[in-house]
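May I ask for an example protein's residues together with how it folds?

___
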Amino acid sequence: MSSDESPVSLSLAGSWQLELDPNDRGVSEDWFRRSFSREVELPGSLDGQGIGELVDLNSKWTGTIFDRSFFDAEKYASYREGSNFKVPFCLQPETRFVGVAWYQKEFEVPEGWNGKALTLFLERVHWQVQAWLDEREIGSGESLSAAVELDLGRLQAGQRYRLTLRVDNRLSIPLGENAHSLSDHTQGNWNGVVGRIELLATEGLRCERLEVFALLESRSIRVEGALQGALQGATLQLAVRARRGMEVQGGAALVVQETAVGEGGVFEGEIRLGADALLWDEFGPHLYELELRCGDFRRTEVFGLRRFTVEGTQFCINGSRTFLRGALDCCVFPKTGHPPMDQDSWREILGRIKAHGFNHVRFHSWCPPKAAFEAGDELGLYFQVECAVWPNAEAVLAFNSPAGIGDGEEVDDWVYREGERVLRAYGNHPCFVMMACGNEPGGPQHEAFLTKWVKHFRKRDPRRLYTGAAGWPELDANDFQVVSEPRVHQWGDGLDCRLNGSPPATTYDYRDCVSKRQVPVIAHENGQWSAYPPLYDTGKYCGHLKARNYEIFGAGLAASGLEEWVSDFVRASGKLQALCYKEEIESALRTPGMAGFQLLGLQDFPGQGTAPVGVLDAFWESKGYLEAAEMRRFCGEVVVLARLDKRVYSAAESLEAIVEVAHFGLRDWKEARLSWKLVSQAGAIVDQGEVDIPSLERGGLREVASLACSLSKVVNACRCRLEVELSSGGESVANSWDIWVYSDPLVSLDASGVAVVSNCSDALTAMEAGMKVLWYADAAWMGSDVALGFTPIFWNTACTQQQAPHTLGILCDPEHPALKRFPTDCHTDWQWWYALRGATPLNLELLAGQVDPIVRVIDDWYTNRDLGLLWEASLGKGKLLVCGLDLSGAENCLVKRQLFHSLFRYLDSPEFAPKTAVSTEVLWEMSGGKTKESSSLGQSDSC
């Protein structure tokens, strides 16, 4: 092969020799001089190829185990042994290896490479590496975020050499065992090398630094960099071409300009792209390619013309205000156990995020590979990248986490080194608009340390905005604050959070939080609402990480006789989860001056005890209850919002609403029209109207209309939907909100043969007389210590030390005659707030699955108890309806009154014919064998 035909790179992918070094003896024993006995494929990880120790009870996991009951609880006993070993707190590899591993491969230098300077390129090694060429050490490197490049020098063409790598994935620097860059809760702490593994050949030149600064006013770029090995005064040619996506458009370069290399190889130049040069943003992700030429040396870099700045408490992209609708990427990749390194995979992941209405991705305590940045550039997403650390999260201080940051530990130097590596590797990508040191730091000196860190990197590279960390601390030096204050549920709120403690409305916002700050405020990890995990999907986990946690939960569900309900549990709890996310996101959008949110999450999180918080599963695939188009109605660049004081009305009232539009779209809307209608569940239009809006400027929240609608046309009880659509010039957006209207009269207890009781003794007495009985039960009577709220579980009960609520909503049959006069879907909806507040989930285990509750409670996936709120049975000539719903104060609450009316009419009808018989002994045992005085219904919140 002639020199002009020689390749510029030589792939080293394929079979390598391997030797494990668990006792770390290899360096002292000069293992680089010897041959190794095993084979392994690179790129790849040891865990992914079944190399390492089988996981068992003695495995030392990288990551805090928040609930250690697995190690001693009787219910997990069978999972702690032998081949049935399964853990409930994260996805499970078959094998793990944490320590030192040695990799070795021989290669031949291609003809034509004689005299060329060779560089070893390891795109992502996990995560500290030393290298030898034959018996000569060539260097070492470390990074959890960027490639490691090592200089091999000039080698002889046609000669064979032996390359030896020593890779260490131990947590030798206190980066935080829960950091998503290495924790078993996420990708796993793998040992290996993924992505490109190759030798690069040059004539001796090497680009040490290349930075492209966009100058929007003049449609120019300023190029700065440094060439190693270049002669001072050498001519450097800079050429710019337009790109379509990641493909270079045909034709000549837009502009070619020459500059000279200065002292030390430093160069700079300014290139005008022309007045018609296109800007980069989420709506038009226009890209350009810069090619640097110096003799035979070539280097290309993709860039976009964009400027991401702060204006007051909001962000601007190219001078226009934007709102960050963010989703977290927590580095969860079950099939491989490490992030994908190819563009197609990242196009698919990021494409799904954008399809759901998001324009922003926060990479929680990790940094993605170059392919992700390339896909983000192409799709027009805004990235927040972090330096791969979670040093001492305050949430886990009780679990002896590392000492923190700023205390003189090696992590302090690491976050400077890693920050520099991240900026050098990815700093030119236009999608890279924000950077943080890491997540939720700790340590007595962390504020002072992070203040210096922010100032250092902002001066080092002002092309993006900086904050010390996500979650906290709020520093004066921060360009923006990521705080948990503007979200529905704070850690530890339990049943006191807004959606559990306050009647449903759509008026709440976070203006008090925003108004007391001078810089943009982003909601930190808002959401965290769980749905029942899709246990039927264990077959999808066909790669490295297995869903053994799902297998444990599935076995528990089967032991309770509830396995047939799993799909219904997923869907019903998912619908409730979606309601909470809608209110969570709309609360942020209707806040004047708010900068954005970072939702946790769009995707399920498989670790920290298992947190199925996503409307997408761990593979970024739909779980079937909230599709992308539906989510975009309330999570998009233009969203219609309605402020409703309440969701429950009497037919004698009028519905009043203020309509706003959060408009962060591409352009101002001219001559817009807002149309609205209130539609009953039967499809009848209760009222409708239109409002002309002459102009609607982009870049903020605008009030556009006030609506008033009489509800007198609503007959009986009815769920209605307020539908609002905004249209202009062929574009349209729509949103909707459900309300409930009740018009039935007050209920009298005058039906003959029906008894309403509150204790077992009275219930038995009435049934012995052949009566129909409505028995109000409570926790003291039914042996239940389950905390029920309106919302589903926050994150999970294992990680939060049993924080309430402990359940995932209700499941019912809307067609059941007991609910005939109480309009409902199969899942928890807003009207249920009134009846669920103070309700008692009844434990039905003593009935051994004989009773199918009319209203079932979906329990925590760890416990899978058979719980109900409304169930029926017969005893002798009597018939029993047991109710754990709180209907006290029904005379003052429309919802409770309507539900009581529906139940009482059911009791007084031939349709009340329980199919299951129950014994006196079982009822006594369920009630604790106690008696209790009957009591009148008390007062409760009116609606």
Observations:
- DSSP finds 14 helices and 49 strands in the chain.
- The chain has five domains: 3-71+79-202, 206-308, 323-532+584-623, 638-742, 754-926.
- The first strand starts at residue 9 and ends at 11.
- The radius of gyration is 32 Å.
